[in-house]
Amino acid sequence: MSRTVAIATLGCKTNQFESAAMEERLNAVGFTVVPFAAGASLVIVNSCTVTAATDSQSRNLIRKARRLNPDCRVVVTGCYAQVDPQALRDIPGVAVVLGNAEKRNFLDFLEEAGEGTRVAVSDISAETEAVPLPLTAFAERSRAFVQIQNGCNAFCSYCIIPYARGRSRSVRADEVVEQIRSLTARGYTEVVLTGIHIGGYGLDLAPATTLLELVERIEGETELARLRLGSLEPTEIPDSLIERIADSAILCPHFHIPLQAGDDAVLQRMNRHYDTRFFRDLVTTIHRRLPEAAIGLDLITGFPGESDDEFAHTLQLIEELPVSHLHVFPFSRRPGTPAAAMAGQVHGAIVKERAARLRELGERKHRAFAQSFIGRTLEVVVERGAGRGACRGLTRNYLNVLFPGNARLAGRRLPVTVDAWRDGALHGTLA
């Protein structure tokens, strides 16, 4: 029997981390990982359910896998499998549906034969510990990701994730430090700390700890060269963490912060626990202390009831803030969330137009931020070849720089002098 497997991953960095861990374990038991289009004998769809559109993408991937290989077995896991396993069980060709907690034992389900579809989805809200899948390497990546936390307690009105991932649960600091030591020994120079809600790290542990204390341990107890933080809620970025990043030799000056809306009334409807004045003061504080830091924002546009004036407030706030890039998400009704049933659903054409305006603003902000470094020499971690004799490197403040080089440079930290901005990217030469 063929032992080929393809993994299709939708959604967040946590899903990407877990897919990489599953791939490593599949390789260890004799599977050959192939591209999705190759028509593998086993296909794993690691699903996302953040919007109704991502549910549809998961279903389409299942059907496509069966078209490519009618005899393949399809295993569906991830957040869509967690919140609506019955919908997936009824799709022809699905052999197994696994919840998020079952990912850690997914190999146990692959060899089980039998008629019909096996569904193994436990109550994620009952999970009290974070048990990340072990992972020692990242294929075709020069940066490593370490999952330090899972779940979320926020219950924003548009979000299904607390129901798909459970309550916030933290990985013990000793385990995080040991994993980073292992990755550093394998040659990784940058690690990204990931999770669903990493700003809440450690509050569930006994004794309780914080993200700041974890970061201090990593800096003091490992030989890691660069440490990058994943997305942080605005209410979970204390001055002490900003100061630590400013003074640190390894922490990257890069903040990924979900603003979601620049209007106080919209933020209230979203069940976000801050206002625009608080957010403005936070970004101003970061920029004052770290003027060259990358500050990227998540934004949802077209939230129910969003008026022209409310959207204008978001545009104005972003115009005035010293941010470097935007991640823009058109609102999509997610069944099971309060926002899906709210009055004042915004017409799709208006949502699309507003998203386009925000993305144009984000591109303008990013271009200005990037161009401010022309003529400077910056340290990059070489990520991969960019084709035609070029490499791509990532700076500490989250700028990609293209420069002449080859694949043998991947993973190295190198100084690159930034020469120009063209075709939407920075270009430079090895210093």
From TrEMBL:
Residues 371-431 form the TRAM domain. Its cofactor is [4Fe-4S] cluster. GO terms for molecular function: 4 iron, 4 sulfur cluster binding; metal ion binding; tRNA (N(6)-L-threonylcarbamoyladenosine(37)-C(2))-methylthiotransferase activity. The keyword Transmembrane does not apply. Keywords: 4Fe-4S, Cytoplasm, Iron, Iron-sulfur, Metal-binding, S-adenosyl-L-methionine, Transferase, tRNA processing. It is an enzyme of class 2 (transferase). Residues 138-368 form the Radical SAM core domain. Residues 3-115 form the MTTase N-terminal domain. Gene3D superfamilies: Methylthiotransferase, N-terminal domain, tm_1862 like domain. Belongs to the methylthiotransferase family. MtaB subfamily. NCBIfam families: MiaB-like-C (TIGR01579), MiaB/RimO family radical SAM methylthiotransferase (TIGR00089). Catalyzes the methylthiolation of N6-threonylcarbamoyladenosine (t(6)A), leading to the formation of 2-methylthio-N6-threonylcarbamoyladenosine (ms(2)t(6)A) at position 37 in tRNAs that read codons beginning with adenine. This is Threonylcarbamoyladenosine tRNA methylthiotransferase MtaB.
